[in-house]
């Protein structure tokens, strides 16, 4: 008599990534304060126990999710700037960053607002933000002075937030970039 093969449990190798993506989706919908393990599990369509297995504390989960967001945003930022061969192209790259796909959309804006707010209240998250800003400025310094890099980084962040509320013309932003890039 043949017996059926015994089923064994197999871990989903993408489970951690799925949880992190679902966490960001949940934060975008409900904010940090409204994000719970249960909502994340529901968004990821996985058992609640899987979320707590991979992330025993909500702070660890939020830290890793926001760190992933910061890493992904910086990677896109750096890739856009790295394509620039000279100062003029770098200026245009900054405008592309401000108006590009990576920084557009309600979800991206909501996550940015939540990230800044959470970083203000969470010391370990401030370090993630500081690292992100230092990396961004270092990328900008490949084309501009350190002072200009600080000003341009602030312009980029500010314009992205402003654009979520008030339309701004690309030509106007380019003129701002040119002025600040001369510092």
Automatic annotation (TrEMBL):
For this protein, the DNA-binding region equals 36-55
Q: List the SUPFAM superfamilies.
A: Homeodomain-like
**Top-down, what is the taxonomic lineage of the species of origin?**
Bacteria, Pseudomonadati, Pseudomonadota, Gammaproteobacteria, Enterobacterales
What protein am I looking at? TetR family transcriptional regulator
Supply the InterPro entries for this chain.
Homeodomain-like_sf (IPR009057), HTH-type_TetR-like_transc_reg (IPR050109), HTH_TetR (IPR001647)
Pfam families associated with the record: TetR_N
Q: Which UniProt keywords apply?
A: DNA-binding
Where's the HTH tetR-type domain?
A: 13-73
């Amino acid at each position: 008599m043949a017996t059926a093969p015994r089923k064994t449990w197999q871990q989903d190798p993408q489970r951690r990534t799925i949880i992190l993506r679902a966490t960001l989706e949940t934060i975008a919908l409900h904010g940090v304060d409204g994000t719970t393990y249960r909502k994340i599990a529901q968004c990821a369509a996985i058992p609640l126990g899987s979320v707590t297995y991979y992330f025993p504390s909500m702070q660890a989960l939020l830290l890793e999710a926001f760190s992933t967001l910061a890493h992904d945003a910086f990677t896109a930022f750096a890739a856009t700037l790295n394509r620039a061969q000279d100062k003029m192209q770098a200026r245009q790259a900054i405008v592309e960053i401000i108006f590009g796909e990576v920084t557009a959309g309600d979800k991206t804006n909501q996550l940015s607002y939540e990230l800044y707010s959470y970083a203000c209240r969470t010391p370990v998250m401030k370090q993630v933000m500081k690292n992100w800003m230092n990396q961004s400025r270092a990328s900008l310094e490949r084309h501009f002075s350190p002072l200009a890099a600080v000003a341009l980084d602030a312009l980029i962040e500010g314009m992205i937030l402003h654009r979520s509320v008030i339309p701004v013309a690309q030509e106007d932003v380019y003129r701002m970039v040119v002025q600040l890039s001369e510092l």
